[in-house]
Amino acid sequence: xxxxxxxxxxxxxxxxxxxxxxxxxxxxxxxxxxxxxxxxxxxxxxxxxxxxxxxxxxxxxxxxxxxxxxxxxxxxxxxxxxxxxxxxxxxxxxxxxxxxxxxxxxxxxxxxxxxxxxxxxxxxxxxxxxxxxxxxxxxxxxxxxxxxxxxxxxxxxxxxxxxxxxxxxxxxxxxxxxxxxxxxxxxxxxxxxxxxxxxxxxxxxxxxxxxxxxxxxxxxxxxxxxxxxxxxxxxxxxxxxxxxxxxxxxxxxxxxxxxxxxxxxxxxxxxxxxxxxxxxxxxxxxxxxxxxxxxxxxxxxxxxxxxxxxxxxxxxxxxxxxxxxxxxxxxxxxxxxxxxxxxxxxxxxxxxxxxxxxxxxxxxxxxxxxxxxxxxxxxxxxxxxxxxxxxxxxxxxxxxxxxxxxxxxxxxxxxxxxxxxxxxxxxxxxxxxxxxxxxxxxxxxxxxxxxxxxxxxxxxxxxxxxxxxxxxxx
Length: 474
Prior knowledge:
By secondary structure, the chain is α/β, with parallel strands linked by helices. It has a single domain, classed as Amidase signature (AS) enzymes. 39% of the residues lie in helices and 14% in strands. The protein is built from 15 helices and 13 strands. It has helices at residues 10-19, 24-42, 52-64, 107-114, 157-164, 181-187, 220-230, 248-251, 277-292, 305-325, 336-346, 350-373, 404-408, 438-452, 457-470, and strands at 45-48, 76-80, 118-123, 135-136, 140-141, 170-175, 190-193, 212-217, 262-265, 296-299, 376-380, 413-420, 426-433. It has an 11-stranded mixed beta sheet, sandwiched between helices. Strand 2, helix 4 and strand 3 form a beta-alpha-beta unit.
């Protein structure tokens, strides 16, 4: 069976374990071999747990005794390196941190371990997750497996690249303005940003008012399975929502068609930003797909998106400034683009910050009213597909135009594969729900995935492996 194990979803691995056709040790070994083969080219990982095989052996023993801890027992899951995993350093992709191992797991990692998942490695991100591409002075450039001359997006770019080529069946990422959804769109994977507080997270740090933790997977059902686990309560997060014992995987099949669901679609969200034709057409195709399946679909724009982006452009630099003020050297070791954000943040007054927070609440109320008319919004994730590394604009010009509003308002949102361009690059579209409508967004994402199909990720991995075999290093 060999490396083909790397191309399976978490749910498929679970079925193999149940049948005794493969063991967690087989899978963990195959994943590590694939990392050894592909990661020198992609640079998606920054740390691997020395006890990964030992954890797999413990899971294997539980399966042999028919006493698995849960539906993720034995499934390797990578963790973005701004989330604490005990025994591994939490470097935040930054030279401004040290390599001391974490003493405790973050809430989501603790929940995953409780059900037997193997949290086996840390994935790359830009310095403190501050931008929507993935490179840093600490770990270098992470590349897109669809085209190594392109970015996988950021800040969860390492997580997305790893999942896309089977170097991890699933990953945990974070999203402060689009950092799960943009990499998912650029790599043909599925990324879900839950409602703010749905997944407990600690410590939250300077970006705590905007940051969300969520799954990045090869299919929607895997994300639903993981979300069911990581939403379990943890008192370390004061912002966490009251726990709801929802099985998100069961929700996916609760309604077979979207008949009667009210959907607003918009290729631009009313912004003065024109998406490329491939992105525009993907949004239109998704809207038509839902219409053909019986949904009530019409063009419309949620109110206040431009103002949300202005608020994001105020709060994000202020968060960066707060980060650097806590450093003994004032952030001298940081990526210059993060330092530049911090410099902008230094000039933002307390009155401007308070005004932005007040206005955010006012816009949120207006958007709540919008979601009384509609159940979902379909729109772009980013104005274009994965960009060439050599043609990337300055970091401050890389703005999350279509995703930041969901962070400002705490809304659940997903990036769903919606086809490929003529150049063979994946296109993702965004599905957004009203406050706390996580289950509805996952369900709609599943409906679209069934209609469109999943990205050909196994073929992508084989193609990349063949290419690397001919040219071992980039």
